[in-house]
Amino acid sequence: MAAIVAILGIVVTPVTEAGKALVVTIKRQASYLLCYRSNVDDLNNEVENLLRTRNDVQRKVDADRRNGQVITNDVQKWLKKVENVKEDANRFNDQVKESISCFNLRSRYCLGKEAKKKMDDVCRLQTEVKSINASYPPPPPTIESLPARGFMPLESTEFSMNRVMDALKDGSINMIGVYGMGGVGKTTLMKQVAKKVKSEELFHEVIMVTLTQKLELKTIQGEIAEKLGLKLDVESQDVRAMKLSERLTHELKSKKILLIFDNLWERLELDDVGIPLEWNDKGCKIAFTTRSVEICNDMDSQEKVPVNVLSKADAWNLFKEKAGDAIDSFELNVVAKEVVKECGGLPLAIITLGMALQDKDKKVWDDALLQLQRSNPTNIEGMDQKVFSSLEMSYNYLESKEAQVCFLFCCLFPEGYSVSENEMMKYGIGEGLFKDVNTLEEVSCRVHMLFDKLKASCLLLEGDRSNSVKMHDVVRDVAVSIASRAEHGFLVKAKVGLKEWPEIKNVQKCKRISLADNEICRLPNQIECPRLLTLLLDSNHFLKEIPNGFFQGMNSLKVLDLCDMDISMLPPSLECLKNLRMLWLDRCPRLKDVTLIGRLKKLEILCLQKTGICELKEKMGELENLKLLDLMETNSLEMIAPNVISRMTRLEELRMGNSFGKWEVMGNGDARQASLAEMASLSRLTVLYIHVENVECLAQDIPGPWKNLKEFCICVGRDYTDGKAERSIKIKNSPCPNAKWVEELFNRTYELELMHCEGLDNLMQSHELGFNSLEILHIEKCGEMEHVISLEEEPLQNVFEHLNKLSLEELMNLKTIYWANFQPVSSKT
């Protein structure tokens, strides 16, 4: 009271009637002041708490949006309300500041009451957000969402589209063939037809399946089933067909379905796929695209619809759409019309060349026209020479040699194959394709950039896998034609049904050979290929043996891919490959001894996933230039000699998930196995996937490159499972870890999983562990846990600030999520 009296500047007189009245006034005014101060302070505190909650919600919304989730209207409205509260609180605080200058206690009292009311609104918002779902998964993609790059309403295609639509409406027609040369726009046309029939409700469902040149019935069945929500988890083709037929028969009871097969190269037996016999009787139809009218006849099509090249007017309009309005200028108009004429009306060529010449000057256009007029491409059945010329021009106008080589390397893979950035990175490092890059991460970024450039130039398409690309089949034909020229030295015969090594003219001049995905069962004893840099023999599943001298004439070889083969040993002539930089042996389950690889001193990339090797002997430690060692899922690996890993001092990526896990405890003088202490030598390591069975390693302070790791998955205990996030730690059947190296990774992990951890009563007991990066937390069957977090000091403000998934299972003694035994220090008024 004395302090309040002093603040008010009032002198208390002796106890008289006037004095008593004065005391009552003082108390009333003091009450007004206390109410005002308390409520205003409380309001500001609650608003700060609400804004922190808002920030957490906004981070989750942003993360969900990046992951393709659909953001709910409720959370958006809530965020808007919070923004309004923030603005209202700012205006209110301005009023409070004004009230300080005029000493009106009743006015302050009113402001205090208003603050109390606003605080109730803030608290309601804090409660409301707990019941709001921020997002939900997007609906499955529909036919309406199919992209149709390069589509424009054109008179040339209107005729074909109308004929297809008329056939779909004709009850007497159930099989429709759409044919035309490669790149003429058949796929684009059928995507538009699919959208149109859905919008006009001619069919309840439209299923479009893209085929490869060699029919893969299991793949076709899988795609149809997936779009019907059916999971075909059996291997037998006949059983899959039966299940698919049963599902389609059930669907036909209430739905009319249009099934579109895109890019058919041979007769497709519908019974083998699982198309029921009553398909046509229910008003359902099948349409397909093909390059040959003969396929239409083979499929007994009642309607055969040709798709022809564009008229001059349509070709010009499409070219203008891609090249820009500059082609109407006096300077470019004449040459642009000649360029369009050379494209021969093929939409793919027009689109590709238009984008390649966009924003280029007159001299570039003149040169493009000259080359188009003079080119003489290799003949390919069904392809016009003009098509090759125009597509090759897009290749020639790529801004960098790296992009050109990257493009050509994509044709080494089978038709329709999705080439991942990771695969191209390994080939690029092996051949040294990319300049001015020093690390695997830098190469990965370069490949990503080149893929983006090639997709933007319409030379590559989005692949079927994450971070991958694939080639349109026409573009691939052009790429093979270019790559086969002497200066490039490619020989590409991937997935063409070879049963033996082919006869190769001028094999001594070959630089790159791809015989991948064939049925070769025998190799020559020796091949003289002194200039050969890259050899792909992967996926020749029948090949059980490589002759001892096979590699003797390949001294220049830098890249060797022997994945998915049935070989049991490596030939002695492998030692001749002194310049080899990339060796890929994934999925060779009978291969057990790889000691010979230790003599390939220039090796930088070594991939041994899912091989049958049992040990890495001391000789492997001589691979001192190795940057990537991949032993993922090599679950037969039981022994790694000491000091093998530590001598690979240039390692940047070490991938050993679901592989060797018997790391010895550091300090054993008679060590027979590798220890985690060897990581201390790997100063360049940025990616680490390992399994640790010996739980004693968690109690040791092991030096290592832990702070440098940008991607890791550490699994401790008996089992190994890959993490969902790129930084994850999973500990099972182990005591609570307390080593500094584990804590270092804890603070940087995105995903943490703890199961059956004895002695773990809470996740952290100090500020040293903040889990500031954690996004996913799963704790299961930790019976002694009472609190997820328990602190004996001041509570943390930012703990779990990025957490968006918390899973707690079978924690029988759990009391609270977050508990702090903290006593605030009292302060004087």
Task: Write a structural description.
The protein is α/β, with parallel strands linked by helices and 829 residues long. Helices cover 35% and strands 13% of the residues. The protein folds into 6 domains: 2-136, Methane Monooxygenase Hydroxylase, Chain G, domain 1 (Up-down Bundle); 155-306, P-loop containing nucleotide triphosphate hydrolases (Rossmann fold, 3-Layer(aba) Sandwich); 311-385, Helicase, Ruva Protein, domain 3 (Orthogonal Bundle); 398-477, Arc Repressor Mutant, subunit A; 484-593, Leucine-rich repeat, LRR (right-handed beta-alpha superhelix); 614-829, Leucine-rich repeat, LRR (right-handed beta-alpha superhelix), CATH 3.80.10. The strands form 6 sheets. Strands 11-12-13-14-15-16-18-20-21-22-23-24-25-27 form a 14-stranded parallel sheet, with helices on one face. The radius of gyration is 35 Å and the shape is globular. The model is unreliable at 1-13, 375-383 and 825-829 (pLDDT under 50).
Task: Name the features.
829 residues, alpha/beta, Rossmann fold, Helicase, Ruva Protein, domain 3, 6 domains, 14-stranded parallel β-sheet, five-stranded parallel β-sheet, disordered N terminus, disordered C terminus
CATH class type of the largest domain? Alpha Beta
CATH topology of the largest domain: Leucine-rich repeat, LRR (right-handed beta-alpha superhelix)
From the alpha carbons, calculate the radius of gyration and give it in angstroms.
35 Å
CATH arch. level architecture of the largest domain: Alpha-Beta Horseshoe
Approximate shape: globular
Instruction: Give the class from helix and strand content and strand pairing.
Output: alpha/beta
Poorly predicted runs? 1-13, 375-383, 825-829
Q: Measure the end-to-end span.
A: 11 Å
Question: Helical percent range?
Answer: 25-40%
Question: Which range does the strand content fall in?
Answer: 5-15%
Number of helices: 20
Number of separate domains: 6
Average pLDDT rating:
82
